[in-house]
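does this look right to u?? magnesium ion version
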Amino acid sequence: MLEWLPEAIRPNITSELLLESLYETVYMVGWSLLFSGVIGILLGVTLVVTRPGHILENSFVFHTLNPIINVLRSVPFIILLVALIPFTRFLMGSAIGTTAAIVPLVFYAGPYIARLIENSLLEVEPGIIEAADAMGASKAQIIFRFILPEALSSLLLSLTTATIGLVGATAMAGAIGAGGIGDVAITYGYQRFDNGTMLITVLLLIVIVQGLQSLGNISSKRVRRR
Amino acid sequence: MLEWLPEAIRPNITSELLLESLYETVYMVGWSLLFSGVIGILLGVTLVVTRPGHILENSFVFHTLNPIINVLRSVPFIILLVALIPFTRFLMGSAIGTTAAIVPLVFYAGPYIARLIENSLLEVEPGIIEAADAMGASKAQIIFRFILPEALSSLLLSLTTATIGLVGATAMAGAIGAGGIGDVAITYGYQRFDNGTMLITVLLLIVIVQGLQSLGNISSKRVRRR
Amino acid sequence: MIEFKQVTKTFHSGNQTVTALDNVNLHVARGEIYGVIGFSGAGKSTLIRSANLLERPTSGEVLINGVNLATLKSRELQKAKRNIGMIFQHFNLLQSKTVFDNVATPLKLTRTPKADIRKRVTELLSFVGLSDKADNYPEQLSGGQKQRIGIARALATNPEVLLCDEATSALDPDTTSSILHLLKKINIEYNITILMITHEMSVIREICDKVAVMEKGRIIEEGSVLSIFSNPQHPTTEKFVRSIIPTGLPARVKEALQQKEPNRRIYEVTVTGDSSHSDLLRSLIQTFGIEVDILHATMNDIQGTSFGRIYFDLRAEPEILAEASNYLKSHPLQPKEVTGDARVAA
Amino acid sequence: MIEFKQVTKTFHSGNQTVTALDNVNLHVARGEIYGVIGFSGAGKSTLIRSANLLERPTSGEVLINGVNLATLKSRELQKAKRNIGMIFQHFNLLQSKTVFDNVATPLKLTRTPKADIRKRVTELLSFVGLSDKADNYPEQLSGGQKQRIGIARALATNPEVLLCDEATSALDPDTTSSILHLLKKINIEYNITILMITHEMSVIREICDKVAVMEKGRIIEEGSVLSIFSNPQHPTTEKFVRSIIPTGLPARVKEALQQKEPNRRIYEVTVTGDSSHSDLLRSLIQTFGIEVDILHATMNDIQGTSFGRIYFDLRAEPEILAEASNYLKSHPLQPKEVTGDARVAA
Amino acid sequence: DSLDETTDYSPDNPVSVKIGVTGTDTPQWDFIADIAAEEGIEIEIVRFNDYVQPNQALADGEIDANAFQTISYFDHFIEEHDLDLTAIGSTVLAPMGLYSTKYDSVDDIPDGAEITIDKEATNQARNLMLLQEAGLLELEDDFGVTSGVDQIKNNPKNIKLTEIVAGNAPRLMEDVDAALINNGIAVDAGLVPPEDAIALESETATPYINIIAARSEDADNPVLQRIVDIYQSDEVKTFIEEEYAGATIPTYISLDELNSYPR
Ligand SMILES: Nc1ncnc2c1ncn2[C@@H]1O[C@H](COP(=O)(O)OP(=O)(O)OP(=O)(O)O)[C@@H](O)[C@H]1O
Ligand SMILES: Nc1ncnc2c1ncn2[C@@H]1O[C@H](COP(=O)(O)OP(=O)(O)OP(=O)(O)O)[C@@H](O)[C@H]1O
Ligand SMILES: [Mg+2]
Ligand SMILES: [Mg+2]
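got this back:
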């Protein structure tokens, strides 16, 4: 498949490995985005609505959650990976491989997404929340029917940024045998001084990231109303 | 200094090393935040104001910058580090060490900050820009006297998120001999199975991140006017 | 229905303290349309916002239907609020939803069937004259159109109580009048209670039963619209009344006075209720032989009766005028001679 | 000074096209206060926003001082805009800046010395009555207070042209009147040109020299305020004029008509300018011996003259009334008998 | 976990085995897997990017064997973590070398010179021992396989040691006076170890011979034994020599010999 490339940049890896690693990346990013997105949005919403003066003001929850997120964001990814091994094994049956990597990736991206979401949600006009409150909306309705839709455009951009961050993080998940393009780039390209592999994997990553960003930009723009 | 700790968690490293690595982290994060902050804000502002329909609409600039940022965000940090070696050497005289690490860190964080800033700036009420325009503000004035101050609260949270991201990235900058707490945590704590070192370094990281986040939250809240 | 009991609300900003509500007592009876008027910054919005707890009073309490909302549990509070529609001064529309969905929002909250929602929203949009904007987003609307969406949204659930904060401030007189008529209509048909903030005396005149005047956080005067208009006590109230019943001398009267003709006098008669001028006119014209002209007259139609002033221009020989002046002094309508010095233009 | 030449502006949203301005031609002369009135959604904001290119017209051109802004280079355009103050319908204040800094913003843009800024802003704030709010942030202000900050900001640089989009819509009559007086004053003192959007006819009456009426993106009528008020041509214009000179039957007149007494007739006299009623009164009372009462009267004072209506209540034997009716038919004031069927309440 | 029940296998009734490797060792394992597959052993290669996880995963039963480490690292690791693992065969040796773009011999290295060493613990220990061998440093007596810079007794030339990631050493050579580089990496980076190195680990450095490790209970498992045999076959030896161009030297010694290095 790649034989037609000039020698200097012809990768030393098989196209099967490349395709497989592409699949692994998509698989890891997809699943961990799903979970960390849900968790991150939940945490982000909680961080916003429990803060002083907000609709579900709860000093205890806010002041517990806030540092927990900070702690998770403090730990270097590799150490997080290790610290989570027992939990990963309990959850996934195994602590190695592509599937197992989803757990630490979720722990990595969840709190990160929470922070981005928090920032987006704080920009919602307080008047909107007042209107919701005055209509007798329940707290859940205020969140799901007012705050989230109003912040949607910014949320989509935040999720885009987070997704691209996840793509980057999968490269590190190679430590537990997760594979993925980033890992191939590092182990075959970088460590083996194989410029061809480096080039093609980085190109693939660029295509992925470019695609994700375009998708994010377009969908965010489509729902932006100002 | 650390001899009073119970043996199980007494780190095998000297307190000098710890202090030095703390200094290295602060040094790297400080400088790279300064540069990547400036660059990120410039790029973020450019991404916003050159987009279709905005005050400095410029399809060429926007459609050039956008993918360049994506490219930089695509490359795994370790590969970015390597790819930048010649440039770093040219700029810093050497591609090794704490100072040299600032270059790849800036390349890593700059585009990332740009994306966060972009999202924050897009949330500024268009009416504000109209008011500025109607007053005869120059483009630079519109940006610096209207858009940036109005987005300040969100910008501060974005910069906080980015700074914490930078703290995480410094752990990886150990690859070129940059040192720092994250690196000590990985090489002394994780690789040498020294739980004491792991604990104390991670605790230090937590304190740093917690401090940064609190600072960000407080300053953002102070300037938030809604 | 709505009762404010010694409600005080202070805001702190820096080292400044603003007392937006200062020991306010107010009672709005069921089915009443109660207007609150006052200068900008008087505390009107704060008052109405504390009715549904958007602002928690610093002290005092607000009862709706005899219930202090502040004592309710979350769910009960929501239920209570669903019975209170609110029109916001700054509209507070959802930017992310179409006009249709904005109006439908309160209905969706109560899980109204889709078909019912469609019917009700269509009806409301057609009433506020925005059927063709159903699929537009708020940012594509003019100021008045946004306000009308806010009105439609507040009415969507047929609430028992309606809180209107400057509901017609951005609307032209024609639209205002049709909105006010609608409010009056639902007030009569459904016995809905309306608390209405406004800075326009004409709104009060048009539909309110009672009115309170606020100044600096205090209610300085209140009563039936009729009594306030006919007999304002407080200077501020008078200013508002004057805004639709001018009390300054009309230009034509001033002009006439400037000519200072000896055989001409100008009299002002204040009209209250059903006063009759026929005997006055007859006496002046027939008995005294005076030439009587109506120089200026402004009367307001307030709930079926007329209030206002008439300026009569009397011309005759000075001695006849002097004679008539004695007659006029004892006349029950108490005509006052206008000399130009006594009153200052507003 | 401001000239709109065949300006058309269309908005597209989805498959809908809205023509907000439809071939508008308008000329505002230097030093003029030009009012634009129209129903909500008529295109007023779009018109004023195209004057300083906040909306680029789809076709046609706008000249300010003979210059088409659209042809200017960036720097020249900025300079031109600094001479045009604008008050926005939705205020558009900077949330992140204090009241003081908001008003100071346009001065800072031109690098005005600090001391001058302080002096000018203090002066403006005291004028709009918000000196005590200098250090507050917009979100701590009431609706009317925000609007006043917007006004102060627009005036800060003493612009040559002022564009006001509903500058007083959130203000009470007293504040409105003081703002309007200020505008009139700067208009006279500095010969500043003002284009003023409003939905309140009273604003037009108070300070405008000329007025244009918009409907559905078109200017349907324009002229001096006097001519428009005294002689509105288009039904929409009439509606606006009627908003301050009610043309419907007053309640008291309607009530009188309902009693259908045979020896009572009601006549309506339209007052335009300096019409005199003295001979009418004398004839009716003295010649016919009719009992004449003034049932209702509303006159408006427009630029020194009175316009309005008087309702006379005539009581006498039917045959005398019949006789008088012939006399009245030929009277130059053209009194019209009101029967209750002919007119419908507005 | 155990492979016990799967002693019987044939091409028609294949047995599957998971082998953990790190980074770049896959070519020979792909080659071995092909050979083994014909006999009914399906090798699944699990690639790690880290030196801790493969042993952990082996002990936890997530893989059946691993092949990525030197015997000394392995011994140290199982002692530290109290794991019941055993070395079941030797594989290759990739000697370490000291390279410099500035100096032709170790003696030329000046006072205060900067030398890069691997930040990864076992390799770092090897680096330091090579520097001791070259006479640049003196290490503590109890210097072990994961000892680091803190165990340096004497640094007469005041050499500045900079820890970096191994793969960067060739790339950063010109920024320092000398760099310690793994053979594998050196060859990949286009260096010729015997010619370019100014100091080289002796080829018989037993502690640094790589091994295949398994859980002790599986030490005698015929499947694993067969895999060791395949690895140590001439066919594979030739393959490795060609593939790695001398950077990685197939080194097949007995287990006794393997375990007899000086500790
Ligand atoms: N961005 C837009 N997209 C689509 N339609 C628009 C947009 N802006 C304005 N319109 C439409 O153009 C018409 C004129 O709007 P404009 O704001 O000029 O009205 P207006 O006369 O100022 O009304 P008001 O008195 O209510 O402020 C309205 O029907 C409005 O819905
Ligand atoms: N959040 C706040 N912080 C500080 N002061 C406030 C705040 N909200 C309102 N105020 C002040 O309280 C006073 C009353 O405000 P309110 O909005 O009730 O006035 P209002 O009568 O509705 O005026 P308007 O007619 O201009 O809308 C004002 O002086 C205002 O500046
Ligand atoms: Mg208000
Ligand atoms: Mg408008």
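Chain D has two domains: 2-243, 251-337. idk if thats expected tbh
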